[in-house]
Amino acid sequence: MPKNHINSNTIHAGIVAALRESGGIALAGGCFAFVIGVLMIQHGFVFLQAWLMNSEVYAGALEMISIPFWSQTPLPSITLISFAFMICLRYVMMGMVIFDVLQGLSGWRVYVALFFVADENWALTVAKSRRYKNQQFLFGYFFTSGVIFYLAWVCCGTLGMFLAPLIHNPQRYGLDFAFLSVFLAMLVSMYRGKSDVFPLVIAGVVSAYVSHVTHHGWHIVLGALAGSIYGACRDIRHS
Fold first, then answer.
1. Residue 46 burial (CB < 10 Å; 0-12/13-18/19+)?
2. How many CB atoms are located within 10 Å of the residue 158 CB?
3. What range defines the domain where residue 64 resides?
4. Same domain, 101 and 219
5. Segments in the chain below pLDDT 50
6. Within this chain, do residues 237 and 161 fall inside the same structural domain, yes or no?
7. 81, 114 in Cβ contact below 8 A?
8. What is the pLDDT of residue 17?
9. Looking at the domain assignment, is residue 1 inside a domain?
10. Are residues 145 and 160 both part of a single domain?
11. Is 235 in the same domain as 122?
């Protein structure tokens, strides 16, 4: 049996594959969590507030955008709720894509796994599903990579909270690039060839334009929808 062969018929094989492959992107995501931890303390969060938000909300883009609003009086609750809805609306589309991995599993497994859904382990699992079709393998991979990323997120975020008084400008150390680097890495792992170029370009152009026009998070949703609609229409036309 080849050294790199993966027994895709077991959850255990999925767990082993995730342990081997998800560490790098978890570390990159941890750098982003570190920056968020620093920023939360610098914006007036007490440690317990910052830790609970980082570990329970567990949504990096939403946390980053919402941090400045928490120091405002009165708290702009409607604005925060609107941002949360728009930014996290992408999880609806992500859930539809990952449905086959969770289909048929018992209820508690599904709900526990959904807590650990992040862009990173979702992208890793989607890329893996192109080679391995066994549901048990993919679930083990999806869940384990999610737990690894979550632990890295919480630990690095906590470290950032402790070191916040010593770091006055995260950009000086290039830590602000962590967020972009994670998504660039995911883009490379999910790239399938020339057929992906136009949907990606359309999504990027629409997202950039909407971001320039409005700063309310709609660029995330509308960019994704534009690229998806183009890709779907193209595939229907060629089928």
1. exposed
2. 18
3. 11-189
4. no
5. 1-4
6. no
7. no
8. 93
9. no
10. yes
11. no
Residues 140-198: tens digit of each pLDDT: 999 999 999 999 999 999 999 999 988 877 777 776 676 677 667 667 766 677 777 88
Q: How many CA atoms lie within 13 A of 180 on its CB side?
A: 4
Domain boundary among 189, 205, 230: 189
- 5 part of a folded domain: no
The vertex-112 CA angle with 142 and 10, nearest 5°, equals: 40
| Residues with Cβ within 8 Å of residue 204, at least 6 apart in sequence | 223, 227
* Cβ proximity of 196 and 230 under 8 Å: no
Question: Is 201 part of a structural domain of the chain?
Answer: yes
Q: Does a cis peptide bond (omega within 30 degrees of 0) precede residue 74?
A: yes
**What's the predicted TM-score (pTM) here?**
0.76
Can you say whether residue 72 is alpha, beta or left, with left for phi > 0 and alpha for psi between -120 and 50 degrees? beta
The total number of structural domains in the chain stands at: 2
Nearest C-alpha neighbor of 19 from the set 121, 117, 141: 141
Based on the fold, state whether residues 232 and 180 are members of the same structural domain: no
CA geometry: angle at 148 spanning 56 and 161, to 5°?
Answer: 50
